[in-house]
Amino acid sequence: MKLYNTLTRKKEPLEPLKAGKIGMYACGPTVYDYFHIGNARVFILFDVLRRYLAYRGYDVTFVQNYTDIDDKMINRAGEIGIRVDELADKFIQAYLEDTAALGVRRADHEPCATWHIADIIALIEKLFEKGLAYELEGDVYYDVQAFPRYGLLSGQNLEELDMGSRVEVDERKKHPMDFVLWKKEKPGEPSWESPWSRGRPGWHIECSAMSMHYLGETLDIHAGGQDLIFPHHENEIAQSEGATGKTFARHWVHAGYLNINQEKMSKSLGNFLTVRELRKKVNPMVLRFFMLSSHYRNPINFSEEQIEQSQKALERLNTAVDNMEDRLARVDEAPPDREEEELLGYLQESRERFIDAMDDDFNTADALAVLFELARKANTYLNRSQGQKKNVLLPVLDFFRETDEVLGFLQERTQEVLEEEIEALIQKREEARRQKDWATADGIRDELKVRGIILEDTPQGVRWKIAVEDSG
RNA sequence: GGCGGCAUAGCCAAGUGGCAAGGCAGAGGACUGCAAAUCCUCCACCCCCGGUUCGAAUCCGGGUGUCGCCUCCA
To answer: Which pLDDT does position A367 carry in this prediction?
Structure first.
């Protein structure tokens, strides 16, 4: 697989450090609030990347952290009047509920920063040994000028970064870009003992400490949103490589932004949309599909119109799968004819195209096209009058299930069992149709539609499905 | 001031040298008792100007537009 590497600004083959194994780390949420749909893009994207690597046979260890101690956590806890750890518990729980609705699987390790204070302190001590850290009245800073490669990831250099500085700098620091590794406590804040002061870790150091704790000193993939490139990931490199002397991450993968109605999402613009809210109106699987319908590095624009289009598109795929399942229950095996041989050949081709697309820098948009084209062929097959065969239909259906193990947005609906009453109404309608009593038949169809059951008459008999709900 | 991205049909979106994927919307047709679902057909010469090439949406140069980053941020 080739993946774009932010560090080299090129697509590069993914070559794991240890054959067959991938260690992947993604920066997770700061758990001070419900996460928004921009965060959701990242969680979904990396969930799919992780699943795809597993699909390709890698043994993937995926780590995503929770930032459960920092300024935002402390401020919010203060506002609400609860402890920081209570705040963290609450929003970790909310995170798990919302991501589960989006079909995001749990990471292999989901550590909190506060579990790893000892690792963090040990890492800072190592930076002191290497002459990369200095103390100022209980605070500890990273000395960026002592790390020559600083700025490589973001393509910045210290002189120019300095010029653009928009924020008042602490005059005690050796360089304006020096960032805090350890922060001396203020009264009432959560704090831990350290060689320098009672205090707490800086934001950047926690990711270095946790990623290396679980995955070793060199990660295969480090992922995050584009806005983390500078300074967060730049600082992680400085910390980790400064301490170990080894490459920290072989591949840096960054997801593009999500905008709302062409604008950046922000609280001041009032267009801040959480998944928790959106879930009330939009099926989370539609949101998941939407996130995968364009390339992960491109900015995407969220709007009602886009969601409607995604909803319809996904429906097309779901319907195709439903219809195949429905037919599968009514057919037997038999040697395929010429037309069926062609379909099976096309299926093989589709699998190759799917892999080619995903292998080429995780091109989910291209991969989706493969599914749509196969769906059309499958629909055509379902329409033919000669009848279908189990040994043809099943492999096609299995391909959709196989790829959905990676993409994860399909909703199979025909597995459910109908209530007897509804079953009886369907039978009654069938009888009315035989009598050509169209008024009665249509009346029943309308009634069931109101109750969320959609009936479709096919040459093979009536077919039903549950209407898609708007919320999940 | 520095760094980087993007510009393809009404909308969304793939496509890094050889007659422009896919989805949504729209038009016409087929199937249907009527529907639904589905199928078929139609619907772009790729921001502008130069250049390289037998040949460029794809490469190079110059514009224009747009978005983002430069110590809160996925």
So the answer is: 97
CA distance A365 to A141: 43
Question: Can you tell me which residue has its alpha carbon closest to the C1' of nucleotide B31?
Answer: A383
User: What is the dihedral angle through the alpha carbons of A374, A405, A50, A468, rounded to the nearest 10 degrees?
Assistant: 90
Q: What is the largest CA-CA distance in chain A?
A: 92
Peptide bond into A231 cis (omega under 30): yes
* Nucleotide with C1' nearest the A26 CA: B74
Nucleotide nearest the Cα atom of A370 (by C1'): B22
Residue A54 tokens, joined: 């597993």
Q: In this predicted model, what pLDDT tens digit does every residue of A194-211 receive, in sequence order?
A: 999 999 999 999 999 999
Q: Which two tokens stand for residue A370?
A: 């493969």
- Cβ of A461 near strand B (under 7 Å)? The reply is no
Which bases of strand B sit closer than 7 A to a protein CB? Answer: 1-6, 11-16, 21-25, 32-40, 67-74
The percentage of residues in chain A with a pLDDT greater than 90, rounded to a whole number, is: 82
Give residue A472's pLDDT.
36
Q: Please enumerate in sequence order all residues whose Cβ is within 8 A of that of A35, keeping only pairs 6 or more positions apart, or say none.
A: A29, A43, A95, A98, A274, A275
For residues A20 and A150, what is the distance between their CA atoms, to the nearest angstrom? 31
> Which pLDDT does position A416 carry in this prediction?
65
Mark residues 309-348 of chain A whose C-beta is closer than 7 A to nucleic acid strand B: 309, 312-313, 316, 319-320, 323
Helix (H) or strand (E) holding A402: helix A390-407
Short-list A270, A247, A248, A258, CA closest to A225: A258
User: Encoding tokens for residue A159?
Assistant: 């002189």
The amino acid present at A173, given as its one-letter code, is K
Above 90 in pLDDT, residue A267?
no
**Average pLDDT score over residue span A30-46:** 95
* Distance from C-alpha of A207 to C-alpha of A436, rounded to nearest angstrom: 70
CA distance A195 to A250: 32
Mean per-residue pLDDT of chain A: 92
Nearest nucleotide from residue A308 CA, by C1' atom: B24
- Type of residue numbered A400: F
Query: Residue A429 class from Cβ within 10 Å (0-12 exposed, 13-18 middle, 19+ buried)?
Result: buried
Note the ipTM here.
Answer: 0.95
Q: Per-residue confidence at A168, pLDDT binned at 50, 70, 90?
A: low
For the stretch A313-331, pLDDT in tens is 999 999 999 999 999 988 9
Supply the pLDDT for residue A123: 97
Say whether pLDDT at A279 is over 50: yes
